[in-house]
Amino acid sequence: MRSTERTRLAPAERRGAIVAAALSVLDDGAGDEGAGPPVAAVARRAGISEALVYHYFPTKADLFAAAVATRLAERAERVAGAWAGINGAPAREYMRIAVEAHLDHVAAHPSAWSHTLGTLGSEAAPARAARQAARADYLEAVALHLQPDPRPQRAYALAGHVAVLDGVAHHWVERGLPAHERDPLPTLVIDALQGSLGDWGR
């Protein structure tokens, strides 16, 4: 029966199911930091063979990159959805909402964040590329809510913002996501950005 069910999935659906299984394994805290989930565990979770996993993802690094890209896309959707409800708000409010959405995403997937997504710089090249693409998309979206500013200071400030946001979120996860410590985090992150920018510009 299982074999029959496998043949019914179109390639895109099968690929999506494998990525979903990988994310589920990561959420359980399995896998080496920066290396992604064990392929054997992903295959078991998806109810398929390891060979079929490798058919869709030639290397473990490719599978991990797809998982990272999917998780970060979910975060981007969360931020965009939150922004949709505050059209025309001041720039600081847009940033507060973005940080809140980011922390919501982290709280929903603490194990994955701690063991993989939060391990900056140690992942394989494909996962690093996925993270860099998501970072560029996020900064492009943020820039839309600020006045145009060609100075290098703007680019440095936004790059620093991402580092602060990821660092604060990861530290919060490592401390066990204490609820009483979350409230001041958005202000901490936003104040750091405002201090770097000098002015929100909008």
UniProtKB/TrEMBL annotation:
Domain of life of the source: Bacteria
Positions of transmembrane segments: none
The keyword DNA-binding belongs to this UniProt entry's keyword annotation: yes
PROSITE patterns per record: HTH_TETR_2
Pfam family, one: TetR_N
Keywords: DNA-binding
UniProt DNA-binding residue ranges: 38-57
InterPro entries according to UniProt: Homeodomain-like_sf, HTH-type_TetR-like_transc_reg, HTH_TetR
Sequence ranges assigned to domain HTH tetR-type in this UniProt record: 12-75
Entry annotated with the keyword Membrane: no
Gene Ontology molecular function, alphabetical: DNA-binding transcription factor activity; transcription cis-regulatory region binding
Classification via PANTHER family: HTH-TYPE TRANSCRIPTIONAL REGULATOR RUTR, TRANSCRIPTIONAL REGULATORY PROTEIN (PROBABLY TETR-FAMILY)-RELATED
Protein name: TetR family transcriptional regulator
